Amino acid sequence: MTSDNENGALSDEQIAERLLERDHSVFTSLYRNYFQNLLMLAHKYVKDQLQAEEIIQDVFLRLWESPIALENPAAMRSYLYRAVINQSINHINKQKNISKHHSIIAEQLTEEYIDTLHEENELKLLIHREIELLPEQCKKVFKMSRFDHMKYREIAQELNIAEKTVENHIKNALKTLRERLFIDTENGNKHYSVRLKMSIAFLLLCEKTRN
């Protein structure tokens, strides 16, 4: 099994071996390639950006200091995801003293659950990357609508454009994103389940009322 990284053709086993040898370049590359997915995973539980970042840093620090802790070097992604989830559980228990979180979340730590989380994070990143590729004004209007929760009228006033222009930008953005993200191709592109597409894209890509 190979990991989702850009370390050339290195397998998870080779990466684990290089970590044991204190290969800083491999460690840095591993950190960069997993950081965004793991950050979203931690934030899913702790609901705090800074705390989520601290959890990721702590997990990687422990991996660097004690790489031998990776008992199964062929499961790098699973190790990182489990470590982040466990750290998140610890934070929840410390901050809120609610022990039930531990048993509920721990029961979900299956390979299928981890794969689903990873796929969900990949799709979120893909959506945001595609938004960044929209024409500048169209992208600005779309972000103000979806991320800043501004009404069409407010966007029009802020940008000094007609409300109809705002509406057209939103329609064009939605059309472009739907075509790029959800039309299956025959070129071997990654396939996401319909349920996952709908659940992740709902807030970003569904039609919204103007006011």
UniProtKB/TrEMBL annotation:
GO MF, one annotated term: DNA binding
Which InterPro entries does the entry mention?
RNA_pol_sigma-70-like, RNA_pol_sigma-70_dom, RNA_pol_sigma70_bacteroid, RNA_pol_sigma70_r2, RNA_pol_sigma70_r4_t2, RNA_pol_sigma_r2, RNA_pol_sigma_r3/r4-like, WH-like_DNA-bd_sf
Q: Which UniProt keywords apply?
A: Sigma factor, Transcription, Transcription regulation
Q: Which Pfam families match?
A: Sigma70_r2 (PF04542), Sigma70_r4_2 (PF08281)
UniProt GO BP: DNA-templated transcription initiation
Annotated RNA polymerase sigma factor 70 region 4 type domain ranges read: 126-177
Q: Which residues form the RNA polymerase sigma-70 region domain?
A: 30-96
Q: PANTHER family from the xrefs?
A: RNA POLYMERASE ECF-TYPE SIGMA FACTO (PTHR43133), RNA POLYMERASE SIGMA-70 FACTOR ECF SUBFAMILY (PTHR43133:SF46)
Q: Which family does it belong to?
A: Belongs to the sigma-70 factor family. ECF subfamily.
Q: What is this protein called?
A: RNA polymerase sigma-70 factor, Bacteroides expansion family 1
Where is the organism placed in the taxonomic lineage, from the top?
A: Bacteria, Pseudomonadati, Bacteroidota, Sphingobacteriia, Sphingobacteriales
